[in-house]
Fold:
Amino acid sequence: MRRFLLRRLAWFALTVWAVITISFVLMRSVPGGPLSSDRTLHPTVEAAVNARYHLDWPAWRQYLQTLGPLNLDEHGLFGDRSDVFGGILALDLGPSLQHRDVSVNEIVAQSLPVSAALGVTALGWALLLGLVGGLVSALRPGTALDTSARVLSTLGLSLPNFVIASFLVLALAVALPIFPVAGWGSPAHLVLPGFALGAPFAAYVARLFRAGLLEALAQDCIRTARAKGVPWRSIVLRHALPSALVPVISFLGPAAAGILTGSLVIERIFTIPGTGSHFVAGALNRDYALAMGVTLVYTVAVYALNVLVDLAYALIDPRIELEKDA
Amino acid sequence: MSSSPRKGEWFGDATFERVAEQLAGEQAPSLWADVRRRLAARASARWSLRWLLALVLASLIVPLLPLPSPAAMALDKQPKPPMAPWVEPFNERFEPFYGELNPLDRALVSVRQRAFGKKQTGPWLGTDAKGRDTLARILWGSRTSLLVALFAALTSLTIGVAWGAIAGLARSRIDNAMMRTVDVLQSLPTIFLVIFLLSFLNAPSPSGAARSVSRETVFFLVIGAVSWLPMARVVRGQVLSLRSAAFVEAARTQGASTSWIVRAHIVPNVLPIVLVYLTLTLPSVILYEAFLSFLGLGVEAPKVSWGVLAADGAEAISPLATFWWLPLGPALAMGATLLALGLLGDALRDALDVKRGEA
Structure:
């Protein structure tokens, strides 16, 4: 257990380092500085601005500065701590280049709860629809109910989430004005985006759960239990359900990552002020600090979720050894 | 289960007949003949194949069809709703504006102009906010989406299969190093890096000089780069399990060379899983293209793709005016194609799974 966590921590550090380095290299290899797209500044002003963001430093020093509080200047290894850049090791993502006077930390702190609420709603939709759909089709295989559930789930997997979102908006916000078209603020604003974001994952959960249940119900122990006279309901709930849930739980890690990715698009459609929309805006406006900061936040989130899923996996199925697949 | 007629052929007396047949010099049906027969027996697989073939054909010959140009705009007009083909089958307002075309397409377009002149189909699927014909755009857009799929299939089949096979066959240290590389690449939030990369290339270069690599090239490279990773993993797993399979051991004890084992045992047994996996990769790549296009990082106008069209459709929705046909067309095209790929994949998996019979 501890070995597993340590190992994952080492891989995590490597991944974060790779993300920082790749983003840094990408950022600095762009022709023109991040500020050059603005209106032309007076050379003195430009020099001052560059100095503020340390763009006048050599690349290796900027890199160390971004990585952590190691700017290796005349103040020594840890530099002058009143600097604008605290460095990622000090959990300081630096100032945003586009939104003046706001730090990336502040933007993330403001927008992350919004994205988290959206993501949890989406995951809730995915689990609710997926588990109910899978259960219904597995208990009545071959019926019209099963067929329609399977068709719906195939459809959910065949359409991009923003197409699903546009039809939802057309039907439930424009034609029948039940939910708001876009925006943020009330629980009603969460319903449609959450559904659109969760729909593909609901479809996948339904497939996994149906297959898992059918396989579990075909086992000999189930036949024995039926022969003994165990009520059907408790056969399904106590014997078949736990083993059918294992693949669903292992899918939650990739699903969480996919929901984060999908939120980039969904937040844009519904104009939700979440982290994803900030990332897209940051990348498109060449606000490198913001884009890199959000990338890191998402990397950490996905990694942490995957570790949690692996732990949950081992708890459910004692046959799985954590050390082996780390 | 008892209704399955194939069951006995694999596990019952029929096996002996089959062996006897083979001994008598008559060829028993190969796995692939079996697969073809099973696919043909399944209506969903037949229709999926037909749809995909029709789509590929249509995307190849689209410059020849008497369609309006996908790029010719009429800015003064409102979006036109779809008009049934029998109301306005054709009109004479064709404008030969296509933007940049490669020489082959230019030739095809000139053939089309000679054959049909100013004649073009009416707005069967409506027009968009810039007066461009939706049907023409969907058909031209299918080229980009199919090209993306083709490119991803090629990288999966070359890099993915080779990487996985070498890792599976190599000694454990090399295998470890190769698979850890795949692990790190897969745990990177590629989508963020991709958006980074594409948005940098998007930015106007300050000197105004032409970029050495076009964004489209990078777009394709990026899609290829992310699509081979799962394939490598799957192939390696299969190769590893084949390596320790009893029939491979048997071949080895009889003195078969490694290259012979690879050719006779490994390749034929890896091929099915590669095919099935390909039908899973292609939909995800087409969705990936749509995703990037939605963020404005896909192909550049006047080129179109399904992703661009779906994104335009999603943007056309507002409470003030509903241009419902704009999201509907690309959604139907994309949905039908991905559905066909999914159904074909399911059918292929069942057909290749000889142990399960015909479920």
About this structure: Chain B has a mean pLDDT of 79. Chain B touches chain A at residues 183-184, 187-189, 191-193, 195-197, 199-200, 202-207, 283, 287, 290-291, 294-296, 307, 310-311, 313-314, 317-319, 322, 324, 327, 330-331, 334-335, 338-339, 342-343 (CB under 8 Å).
